[in-house]
Amino acid sequence: MENLAMKKFLEIVKDRANEFFNGKISTPAPLEDERIIEIIQQALRKKQGVHVIFSNKSFTGDIVKYDQERRQLIVKNFKKSMSTIIRISEIQKISLVPNNIRIAQQKGEV
To answer: pLDDT at residue 75 above 60?
Structure first.
């Protein structure tokens, strides 16, 4: 199992090195962007919170604004004390947050 994980890791490193040395920039597949936008729109429709992993960081909160022209989100945490601007191109993963997690974070339990 470890050999398979190491092999996959080395393949990724090799691909990234080739992209770097050949001047090619890795871009996410359009399907990934479409899926991210679909989840954003679903969160806005349901008025549900999101957990976003981007640029080796993560943020959980409500979407305040989705700017389609600039392709970015403004997300405010559940306690409304902090917000962040996230570019769609930087999003690695996004998921809807269950309502019980929102309630727990608003109370400060999590």
So the answer is: yes
Tell me if 15 is assigned to some domain: no
Q: Render pLDDT for 17-66 as a digit per residue (tens, 0 to 9).
A: 887 788 766 555 555 888 999 999 999 999 999 999 998 899 999 999 99
Q: Do 43 and 96 form a contact (C-beta atoms < 8 A)?
A: yes
DSSP reduced 3-state for 22: helix
Output the domain CATH number for residue 52. 2.30.30.100
Q: Which domain holds residue 98?
A: 28-107
| CB atoms closer than 10 angstroms to residue 4 | 8
**48 three-class SS:** coil
Overall number of domains in the chain: 1
- Other beta carbons less than 10 A from residue 23's beta carbon: 6
Which pLDDT belongs to residue 4?
A: 73
Supply 29's token pair: 């597949």
